[in-house]
């Protein structure tokens, strides 16, 4: 069996990662979150996707 080099994307994510001695984890966690900065509360309210999509959220 021939071994191939990992692609650029794989190396960009995993290169240089040490195995965690406690959990034996090698992969960097990927968090599906983000944050935004707004000019004001009103600005944040007008940018809310749930406000414009009809999704009911607590307090709406």
Question: Keywords, please?
Answer:
0% strand, single chain, 3 helices, mainly alpha, 60 residues
Explain the layout of strands and helices.
Layout: H1 8-14, H2 41-47, H3 49-53
**End-to-end Cα distance:** 59 Å
Shape: elongated
Q: Give the topology string: H per helix, E per strand.
A: HHH
Largest sheet data: none
The portion of residues assigned to helices is 25-40%
Mean pLDDT over all positions: 76
Poorly predicted regions are: none
Let me know the number of strands.
Answer: 0
Gyration radius over CA: 21 Å
Content-based structural category:
mainly alpha
Number of helices: 3
Strand content: under 5%
Characterize the structure shown.
This protein has helices spanning 8-14, 41-47, 49-53. It is mainly α. The mean pLDDT is 76.
How would you briefly describe this protein structure?
Helices cover 32% and strands 0% of the residues.
């Amino acid at each position: 069996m021939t071994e191939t080099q990992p692609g650029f994307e794989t190396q960009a994510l995993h290169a240089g990662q040490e195995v965690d001695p406690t959990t034996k984890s090698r992969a960097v966690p990927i968090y599906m979150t983000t944050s935004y900065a707004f000019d004001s509360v009103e600005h944040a309210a007008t940018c809310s996707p749930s406000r414009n999509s009809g999704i009911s959220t607590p307090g709406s």
